[in-house]
Amino acid sequence: MEEPSARPRRRADAERSIARIVSAARTLLSSDPNARTDDIAKAAGVGRMTLYGHFGTRAELVEAAFTDALRAGDETLSAIDLTGNAREAMTRLLASSWQVVAESAALLTAAEEVLPAGRIRELHAKPVQRMTELIRRGQDQGVFRTDLPTVWLVNVVHHVLHGAATEIRAGRLEPDDAAEVVTKTVQSMLTV
Question: What is d(CA 64, CA 155) in angstroms, rounded to the nearest whole number?
Fold first, then answer.
């Protein structure tokens, strides 16, 4: 006798509906962290009842959109060659990281409004681990400073990335200049 699966399998149309809702939420929340769920449902081509049938609360919807954005960002960042000299690898990582952060900055704002700080840290675990490992490797290679805690250096890098995204949205930094500004700032901060 077959054992029932622990979680019932969703119908294909329900999966498509969920994907459309998450995609619409990512798009709308990325441009306006206060986007209304009614607008998200409309953009997804579903009714409010359908949206709330899949996501019981705004927090669940925001978390799903934020998680999806982090997954997509991780795919981008995982493709970057981080081997060899840590300074050069950091330059390559920053060139892509600032863009990923810029695209999801407003979505992070939405997440911070409805999710506990601990949950946001959990969701950021992979990017933090990637940066931590690269900084530690640079410290071992003697190209990154060791007089400050690694966790502090990682946090400063993330603040610089988020700061660049804020400056771009405010019109004080040109998107075409961001990669260079971020890289120079972080490299000078990390240099021995």
Answer: 24
